[in-house]
Amino acid sequence: MKKSAPSRAPGNLKCYGSERRAMSGEALPIISDVDFGLMYRAHQARAGARAKPPAFWDDRARDFDARQRARDSYFDAFIARMDFSGCDSLIDVGCGNGALAVALAPRLKTILGVDYSPAMLDLARRRAAEAGATNVTLAPRAWEDDWSDLPRCDIAVASRSTGVMDLEPALRKLDRQAKKRVYLTASVSGRIVNPALLDALGRPPAPKIDKPDYIYVVNLLYRMGRLAKVDFIARDRAEDSRADWAGFQRNVALFLGKLSEAEAERLRAWKQHNPEAPLFERDQAHWAFISWAT
Ligand SMILES: C[S@@+](CC[C@H](N)C(=O)[O-])C[C@H]1O[C@@H](n2cnc3c(N)ncnc32)[C@H](O)[C@@H]1O
């Protein structure tokens, strides 16, 4: 069939079909009609996301810590983008094993790390003690909990910890908690686990829709009237593929959860036959680093 000639829209844009309708009337929503909080929740549901209990991170805490000790330039890149001027106090939400809080300890008078995973908080306590970071305190707290007893701090950070089911209230809480500035990182497009690996394990295929990423944060902050700056931190290296067997197994467990004995056996057999096969069909290349003044 012959394609109809594009009409000329203002600004000399070419437009077809639904675009032409949208240009002339009200058939399509415009961006100010969009409720990004609602859209995020709907996106999470379509991507098959479920609220993760603290046990999810308790189970992964040791592997997470071991992997982090083996690298990485991420925290240097995070800290290099922060402005500490006029700031004495900081709260780190979803502080995990405390690596960032401890690295920040020499720059601030007080640091409060909060997380809902007891195992992560134990690791953070140990890290702070090892580093002699006596100005780091830790408290059990979820994004979804009441934060009214937590101190407002000059800076609030949330590093790789905003993967909650409901993003808008989480962002508003983080914003309220900061007297001066907020810094967070969020994923840029999701990872796709190798379908052949899931098949070999006998696990169901992953949902076809990527999880929501940083672009929701940007849009929600715009609606909150915040002037967000967006930067990107390149990830050091692909997560796994040619890692040794122990490293590969650890990464699989980190992303897919503990394997049963039968699954571990199937994984070993599959890896022996496919030594070059990666854990991810598509890995995550960047973190978005988003900052704003409150
Ligand atoms: C990927 S780790 C990041 C840890 C650390 N911020 C970092 O960048 O290394 C995510 C952390 O967020 C925490 N977390 C996830 N969901 C949470 C929630 N709903 N409330 C509090 N903490 C949460 C987890 O326990 C975990 O420690």
What does this entry look like structurally?
With 294 residues, the chain is α/β, with parallel strands linked by helices. The protein is built from eleven helices and eleven strands. It has helices at residues 17-24, 36-46, 54-69, 74-80, 99-104, 118-131, 167-177, 195-201, 214-223, 245-256, 261-273; strands at 7-8, 14-15, 89-93, 110-115, 136-140, 153-159, 178-187, 192-193, 229-234, 280-282, 286-293. The strands form three sheets. It has a seven-stranded mixed beta sheet. A two-stranded antiparallel sheet has the order 1-2. A two-stranded antiparallel sheet has the order 8-10. α3 packs parallel to α6 (118-131). The longest helix is centred in the N-terminal third of the chain and has 16 residues, at 54-69. It starts with 6 loop residues before the first strand and ends with a strand. S-adenosylmethionine is lined by residues 52, 57, 94-96, 99-100, 115-117, 120, 142-144, 159-161, 164. Residues 52, 57, 94-96, 99-100, 115-117, 120, 142-144, 159-161, 164 line the site of S-adenosylmethionine. Residues 89-187 form the Methyltransferase domain. This is Methyltransferase domain-containing protein.
What's the arrangement of secondary structure elements?
Layout: E1 7-8, E2 14-15, H1 17-24, H2 36-46, H3 54-69, H4 74-80, E3 89-93, H5 99-104, E4 110-115, H6 118-131, E5 136-140, E6 153-159, H7 167-177, E7 178-187, E8 192-193, H8 195-201, H9 214-223, E9 229-234, H10 245-256, H11 261-273, E10 280-282, E11 286-293
Helix pairs in contact: 3-6, 3-10
This protein binds S-adenosylmethionine (SAM).
S-adenosylmethionine is lined by residues 52, 57, 94-96, 99-100, 115-117, 120, 142-144, 159-161, 164.
InterPro entries: Methyltranfer_dom (IPR025714), SAM-dependent_MTases_sf (IPR029063)
Protein name: Methyltransferase domain-containing protein
Domain Methyltransferase: 89-187
